[in-house]
Amino acid sequence: SHAIIWFDTNGVVKGANQNFCQALGYSLSEIVGQHHRIFIEKREVERPEYQKFWRDLASGKAQHGQFRRVSKTGSDVWIEASYDPVIRGGRVVGVVKIAADITKSKIAALHNENILKTLERSVAVIEFDLDGTIVTANSSFLGATGYTLEEIVGKKHRIFCDPAYADSKDYGEFWERLNGGETIADTFRRFGKGKREIWLQATYNPVYSSKGTAGEIAQTATELRESAGGIAKRTEQQAAALEQTSAALEEITQTVSDSSMRA
């Protein structure tokens, strides 16, 4: 099931099995005598790292990892591969590569990574131990609160709360619910650096271990640009304006109706 290809110490292809040829879309006759670079993007070939890659192999240093290669049609092929020097009589006489095609799983992983990067830019994320100790936070959360990561790691969640609330029964119950596995989503009043008031639309989620027990709490949030009171007031004003508009339309409709009847 593995794709296997072997080279001389200069990187020239000496042979390959059917699995390798099938994965890259070539026939054996098309690749024997060609250099390994035919499977690499031109810009990669020109980099010093690629030259070092082959120098290391020729000196007897094996290379392992995930590699992006290019098929005959120009499409990406991702492989999990091991390049191993072949040593005879104390000298390197060739290189054999044994690889597995991981293209589907790698592309899926890259897609998920891109989604996470997008979320990273737009969603504030912070992680806590079960006792509320801060483990880490992303740049969006730090930007919203004005802290650096070094200033908050190891501190308690309560640094973002009003002291009176942090000492209250409600706050204690809040963490009891999270430790019990409950997800809590709401609009929260919090405080950033310098006691600057901020409002967050946030969800606190227990993060479960492989044993099925909650090990951490992850909070995802978006910052609201006005307070909850401001949002409520604006909503109330919009509702009142809508009611006035509806009343005016009803009056106009009635006037038109009366005029039609008199006509």
TrEMBL record:
Taxonomy, superkingdom: Eukaryota
Name by which UniProt lists this protein: PAS domain-containing protein
Q: Which organism is it from?
A: Tilletia caries
Record domain PAS: where: 1-34, 111-155
CDD domains to which the protein is assigned, alphabetical: PAS
What the entry lists under Gene3D superfamilies is as follows:
PAS domain (3.30.450.20)
Name the NCBIfam families for this protein: sensory_box
Xref: PROSITE patterns? PAS (PS50112)
